[in-house]
Amino acid sequence: MRKFLFAVIVLYTLQACNGSDGPADSGTEDNANPSPPLISYNIVRVYPHDTSSYTEGLIWQNNALYESAGSYNESRLFRTNLETAKADKSVKLANEYFGEGIAILNNKIYQLTYKEDKVFVYDLNTFQKIKELQWPHEGWGMTTNGKELIISTGSSNIYYVNPENFKIIRMIGVTDNYGPVSNINELEYVNGILYANKYLTNDILKIDPESGKVLGRMDLSGLLAKSGYKYDPAMYEGNTDNVLNGIAYDSAKNSFYVTGKKWPALFEIKLN
């Protein structure tokens, strides 16, 4: 009995120490469930990207790219020309804010902040700030299904929230055959499917937005080397700061635009 009680206590302790707001990756494969299939892709074209942008959010709308750049003292929201990467509209955040994911809904741009519990809401056309909302979690990625805003916090949890007051409507947990998948970052909602960067990896995950199950995985390892742009490998290869991050979808072309933090290139890709 004493051994049994000890085992129960150990198990309970391990479970209680399992991360902040969501379960961590289990690392143990469930053989009853197959691994998510690998999704292949083709590079259609390579465009320039602003190397000063620590990319946290990326959206394609109205034939323009909307981007949120992070880092304290450097965070901003801006709109750029795809061909030139030149910004024609921009707003800088106060130095104490770290800009994160963005979403566009009802002619408003919503921008998360990292640990400041703030959401900034801007007019889509003028970039004038309309209001601020509270979000009492870390802000990482954000997208929309056309009704709700969908937010990641760096855990395995994804939250659906009311855009008017940021009250949580429901939550899903992202899982694959190994169990919970943490470090869910930038998000894009496309034709009833969620796509997400997994932070510190070269992966983009295809996720069922109702169950959280990972339906497939894109491996974009070596993508930057295929850009044709000159860059310092020491800044990107093995550097945990300047990693792959940023997914936007162009419905007219059925293409995705992907980039990374301070990358010199942005890629148009098509999934196979």
TrEMBL record:
<protein>
    <submittedName>
        <fullName>Glutaminyl-peptide cyclotransferase</fullName>
    </submittedName>
</protein>
<dbReference type="InterPro" id="IPR015943">
    <property type="entry name" value="WD40/YVTN_repeat-like_dom_sf"/>
</dbReference>
<dbReference type="Pfam" id="PF05096">
    <property type="entry name" value="Glu_cyclase_2"/>
</dbReference>
<keyword id="KW-0808">Transferase</keyword>
<dbReference type="InterPro" id="IPR011044">
    <property type="entry name" value="Quino_amine_DH_bsu"/>
</dbReference>
<dbReference type="InterPro" id="IPR007788">
    <property type="entry name" value="QCT"/>
</dbReference>
<dbReference type="GO" id="GO:0016603">
    <property type="term" value="F:glutaminyl-peptide cyclotransferase activity"/>
</dbReference>
